[in-house]
């Protein structure tokens, strides 16, 4: 009959798992459509991820990428100021080092020239200040002394040459011939006459 035929033939979208189990038939057409859509979505997501360049390190915040023109200008100005501060600190250190070298020879140069200077300030310095140094020292409002100092290695004593009575516009000369060699420092014994000392008891200096 028609009722028996309709009960034994599954309707579209349904399947009978067992004729004797008594289970109700379940829909499969819609599940297949959902599974196909999920698979396609997963494939497209994987393809999109594989095409995206990988980022090394921690992700940056949005504020690190987006800056206003004012913020960018402020950042450049800050970097420039830091560079200027570093240069100023380095120049100050070298100026102090050059002044310290010149101070060592002030009294000997005053004695060699026969003058006592009212000022002794390094205005210009050249060289590495390690093995060679050219110094322009102001000794009065109008007078300058040029110094040329050389030594073979760091830690050795400088060999000092000087050129007195220079003007403000006079440039530092590089040639040794333009300088006078500063006499070596003499010991006190070099100025004493020990010819009269025949014995220790007769020597009044001992």
Characterize this entry briefly.
This protein is of the alpha+beta class and 206 residues long. It is 38% helix and 17% strand. A hairpin with an 8-residue loop joins strand 5 and strand 6.
Q: What best-fitting shape do the alpha-carbon axes yield?
A: elongated
Total helices: the number is 5
Distance separating the two termini: 153 Å
Biggest sheet statistics: 5 strands, antiparallel
Give the ordered list of helices and strands.
HEEHHHHEEEEE
**How helical, in percent, are the residues?**
25-40%
Topology:
Layout: H1 2-8, E1 14-15, E2 26-27, H2 29-51, H3 62-65, H4 69-104, H5 106-113, E3 121-126, E4 132-138, E5 144-150, E6 159-166, E7 180-181
Antiparallel strand pairs: 1-2, 3-4, 4-5, 5-6, 6-7
How does this structure look, described?
The protein has 206 residues and is α+β, with helices and mostly antiparallel strands. It has five helices and seven strands, in the order H-E-E-H-H-H-H-E-E-E-E-E. The protein has helices at residues 2-8, 29-51, 62-65, 69-104, 106-113; strands spanning 14-15, 26-27, 121-126, 132-138, 144-150, 159-166, 180-181. It is elongated, with a radius of gyration of 47 Å. Mean pLDDT is 74; it is low at 1-7, 18-25 and 202-206.
Descriptors:
single chain, 206 residues, alpha+beta, 5 helices, elongated
């Amino acid at each position: 009959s028609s009722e028996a035929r309709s009960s034994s033939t599954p309707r579209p979208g349904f399947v009978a798992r067992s004729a004797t189990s008594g289970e109700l038939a379940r829909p499969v057409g819609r599940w297949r459509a959902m599974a196909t859509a999920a698979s396609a979505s997963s494939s497209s997501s994987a393809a999109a991820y594989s095409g995206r360049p990988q980022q090394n390190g921690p992700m940056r915040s949005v504020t690190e990428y987006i800056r206003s023109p004012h913020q960018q200008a402020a950042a450049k100005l800050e970097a420039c100021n830091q560079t200027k501060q570093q240069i100023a600190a380095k120049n100050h250190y070298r100026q102090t080092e050059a002044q310290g070298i010149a101070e060592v020879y002030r009294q000997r140069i005053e004695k060699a020239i026969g003058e006592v200077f009212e000022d002794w300030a390094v205005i210009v310095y050249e060289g590495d200040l390690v093995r060679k140094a050219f110094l322009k020292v102001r000794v009065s409002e109008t007078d300058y002394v040029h110094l040329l100092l050389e030594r073979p290695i760091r830690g050795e004593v400088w060999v000092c040459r000087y050129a007195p009575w220079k003007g403000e516009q006079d440039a530092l000369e590089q040639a040794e011939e333009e300088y006078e060699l500063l006499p070596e420092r003499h010991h006190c014994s070099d100025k004493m006459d020990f010819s009269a000392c025949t014995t220790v008891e007769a020597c009044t200096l001992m």
